[in-house]
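Researcher: Batch entry, complex prediction.
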Amino acid sequence: MQFEVIAKCHTTRARVSSMTMAHGTTYLPTFMPVATQGALKGLTSQQVEALGVTLILNNTYHLNLRPGTKVLDAAGGAHKFQGWRKNLLTDSGGFQMVSLNSFTKITEEGVLFASPFTGEPTMLTVRQSFFILLHSLTTGPRVEEAMWRSIRWLDRCIAKHKSSGRIDRQNLFAIIQGGLNPELRQKCVDEMIKRKPDLPGYAIGGLSGGEEKDVFWKIVKQCAEQLPEDRPRYCMGIGFAEDLLVCVALGVDMADCVFPTRTARFGVALTKDGPLNLRLERYRTAFVPIDEKCPCPTCTSGMSRASLHDLATHETVAAHAITQHNLVFQAAVMGGARDAIMEGRFPQYLKDFFRRYFADAAYPKWCVDALRSVGVDILEGIENPRIVEGKGAKWDYSDKPPK
Ligand SMILES: [Zn+2]
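Model: Structure tokens for the complex:
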């Protein structure tokens, strides 16, 4: 993998870089859509590629269960199996382990659990993966134990990777763990930086599990500040526009989340004015696209909010249409950030984005604080801004937004 920093923001820690892998170049910062089981819900690989997406995420835990490694090997690999020609990142599956309640045993070798499909005992081993085995809000000695285990497993992954013969085609990222404890995070960062010659990139894991946003951004900042300049930094599991932009300002290069595709299936379109719940009655006669300036196939085809309102959640075409729009929105947020960093106007980009997104609601205090910590005051010049604690979204981003 070739990684090159192209430009840096003069104020924040944001940067633009290029990451060239076996299946092409991806420009960072970028958002990676999630194709958990080797398919992005609602779109074909060709449709995803046509949107300009150059990097998607698969999940090892899911691929291991279905179709399974035998089928993947027979197909000639994960790319061929899913008909995806661009870059692919596979996540080891710790988050899925967190959400499993049927696993029976965690050992130094791996996790033994009952397959949710067949009920058969299934082993996910270090060979395939390494991950945190705790809920992300867990605290105390178990977090430290898991953090050290993930370092030991990383060493075994490095050894396995070196002997795999795939070192030129696969790149191993270390995942910083340590829960919500800054001291453990520090130990983990220190240990993983020691292994830098064997690690083309770093991920910040174990967040986005329902922790306080104030804790979230401070952990991201702490990790991103210390990770090597010449390695991409990937913050796992974030996808709300405000989270993406704050993380980019803190020095993050990559992010992934199921949010934009999942919320699309519930009829929610993402826009620069905030999320639109197209199921609401007010869209029944809204004969305008989701966003007139959006270049996505849905908006340019003239498909209206009214039409999507009519189809949302009961006709699959609505899920396809809104999913395409939402992925283009995510790409536009990150592409806009790249352009702004290149042109030396990223602080203003942040101010403009937050002002428009939260103008008719209130600014989330955590975003204000996080961005002030890297030299940008998004409230500058705004008279009597409304500020809220907590996530501060216009609605709670739940899967079933209020009617
Ligand atoms: Zn659109």
